[in-house]
Amino acid sequence: MSNYQICSHCVMDTKSDPFIRIEENGKCERCNMYEHTVAAHWNHGRGHEKELEALLVKIKKAGKGKKYDCLIGLSGGFDSTYVLHMAVKEWGLRPLVFHVDSGFDLPLGVQNINAVCNKLGVDLKIAKIDPEDMRNFQLAMFRTGLACLDIPQDHAFVQMVEQYAVDNGIKYILNGENISTEAYTNPAYWSTIYGGSTTDTVFLNDILEKYSPVPLKNYAFTNTYRRKIWLPYIEGVKVVKPLNLIPYDYEAIKRTLFDEYGYIAYPQKHFESLITKFLEAWWLPKRFGYDVRHHQLSSLVVTGQMTREQALERLSNPSVSEEEGREMFKQVAEYLRISESELQSYFDMPLVKGSEYKHGNSWLINLGVKIMFALGKEKRVRK
């Protein structure tokens, strides 16, 4: 890549994010934004004891007299697992654990979910996405030529967790999102150029009309209005992120989860799902040059949990071997009920820009994100 640049402080670079600016001090705009707008108020989770206590009082009050006082969507991933651990062992909450089975769960993820839930003695509700709907939606996404191929799974996760809370009168959803390991989000470039918003139903319906020959029968959709207005202000269901209110040390927590439950950490974030692992470790780096490790590892670097040298060493090797990548390729083709040559044709097709599809009010979504950040409701760095 001509004019290639990499941040002198983290490992964000112009290959994974061509829009990023490396400023005069050698740092990228994300690092400067983190230092000036995030680090001070977050303080690595320290000093938020009163805020956490007030939140726990509200959760327990809302759940008084009910079997459950909160809902935790558990993917089997590291962050949601630690939220569950803290909720039961440290905060005295009574969560219902909700897992969405997309058909892509990997055995280690299932093992981790069962081990933690069984040891804690919590109720686990497993909801399955209609397999035909999921297959048709996922295949339609591959046919688009876009990068945002994890939308069918991610959209369903959000909708099903939130709707279950509404249907069962649970007023608080505990979310594992956190600054400590997720200070930097996916580059905006990924969604603005070769993708679209996960909750833009105009965009999603356009794709389904073009590429899904069979209408989805049971797949339920959500949207930004429903999530940001209807859910909290009409239904009174709040999505909260308590991990930002406590110190969060990845390596120490990994040891705790292993010692307590035999939880085995994944070699990379989001590797509990076959489709996500395949996309993030193989498809996106090879087809688009997107390596999610740049912003994932940069988050650990700027929060002091990994050195820049360690991150660069990690990046010097691919996420998975070529052999494992091709095996996942075969598994995904089998899941979609198509030949490997057909899946290869989607990989080889020209890159398609998101602007080739219809979109809703994306400007309104972007404005909402800016307002949420200004109000302190969105605490991560989005660029």
UniProtKB/TrEMBL annotation:
Source superkingdom: Bacteria
Q: Which terms are listed as keywords in the entry?
A: Transferase
Listed GO biological process terms: purine nucleotide metabolic process
Q: Which InterPro entries does the UniProt entry name for this protein?
A: N-acetyl_sugar_amidoTrfase (IPR020022), NAD/GMP_synthase (IPR022310), Rossmann-like_a/b/a_fold (IPR014729)
An example Pfam family from this entry, by short name, is NAD_synthase
Q: Does the keyword Transferase apply?
A: yes
Q: Does the keyword Transmembrane helix apply?
A: no
- Protein name in the entry: N-acetyl sugar amidotransferase
Q: What is the species of this protein?
A: Parabacteroides distasonis
